[in-house]
Specification:
The protein contains five helices and no strands. By secondary structure, the chain is mostly helical. The radius of gyration is 18 Å and the shape is elongated.
Amino acid sequence: MIMTLTTTRISSDWPCQVKTPGSYDWERSAAKWLRELVPARYASYPALLRHPVLLARHAQIQVQNEVRVARTALQTARADLPRLGLAESVIEHTIKMYAAEVMQLQHIARSVRAVTQALTEHSAGR
């Protein structure tokens, strides 16, 4: 019997590395993708390996903090970087890099939320 999730819609935020919920081995692909988002030392803890929903929760926290760090770096770059003796062109490039990183991390955060929701719904359906 194949279990399918009818309540989870695949949005544009769904990561391409993760199989569609309900498909064969989708939880394993979700866990693999989530492990790439957390520091290696966390990815090896037995509780996180056995419980993809717990891993997803940790990944959400991790990515939220990365967004905060990138935003802080972006917001303080114009004031802090000149003191380091960096050329204006380097500062401008760095500001663009941080802005792009904030956008990328926000997309990853939405993807983690989508995967977390699917894992939660799948766990509740067992």
